[in-house]
Design brief:
The protein is of the alpha+beta class. The chain has helices at about 15-20, 30-35, 90, 95-100, 120-140, 165-180; strands spanning about 45-50, 60-65, 70-75, 105-110, 115-120, 140-145, 150-155, 160, 185. β1 (about 45-50) and β2 (about 60-65) form a beta hairpin.
């Protein structure tokens, strides 16, 4: 057991360890093992600048890539928006890419079903389009009781996710407005 400075001997109480490190250089937190570790950022083949996908703020990120795989994501200190800072979700966005739980297939659970089934992307898109067209036709309101033009549907709404970029949200807003939807919102604004 060491004294908190990487030296063998009796371990000092936390207060004394902190007093031995007046400049706050983290001597008390170092260990023999941590002294031998190499940061993933130092071994990366390239660094790609990106934007955090989680909300509408647009914090800058540096994505560290080794052998074609993302190995680390950190805040970009050159970003005028976030100046190197990331919220907890942004700081954990490496798991968004590398999580073993990430789905790469379309999964569908039919109404009242207890199991998920896999669908092709084409089939899923056709199902969505059919439902949108049917719901719009069934719930279309051309005019109100006084004859004033409405040209709307309240049969569906859109709640956008914060992992969409500005261009995607712009196109979705245009689409749902053209379809006559009036309930259009984005998770980042709620």
């Amino acid at each position: 057991m060491g004294d908190g400075n990487g030296k063998p001997g009796r371990r000092l109480p936390p207060l004394l360890r902190q007093l031995r490190d007046p400049l706050g250089l983290a001597f008390a937190a170092r260990s023999r093992r941590s002294e031998t570790l190499t940061p993933r950022t130092r071994t990366a083949d390239e660094v790609v600048r990106s934007i955090c996908p989680y909300c509408a703020v647009g914090c800058g990120q540096r994505v560290y890539v080794k052998d074609g795989e993302v190995v680390q994501i950190e805040g970009d200190p050159d970003s005028p928006i976030s100046r190197g800072r990331l919220c907890p979700k942004g700081a954990a966005s490496e798991s968004y890419v590398n999580s073993p739980l990430r789905e790469y297939r379309v999964r569908y659970r039919a109404p009242y079903a207890t199991d998920w089934q896999e669908l092709s992307l084409d089939r899923a898109m056709d199902m969505i389009a059919e439902r949108v067209i049917r719901t719009r036709a069934e719930t279309w309101e051309e005019a109100d009781a006084q004859g004033r033009r409405l040209a709307r549907t309240r049969g569906f709404a859109w709640l956008g996710g914060a992992t969409l970029d500005t261009e995607e949200n712009y196109l979705i807003k245009k689409l749902f407005t053209a379809l006559g939807a009036v309930q259009i919102e984005n998770q980042a604004r709620i």
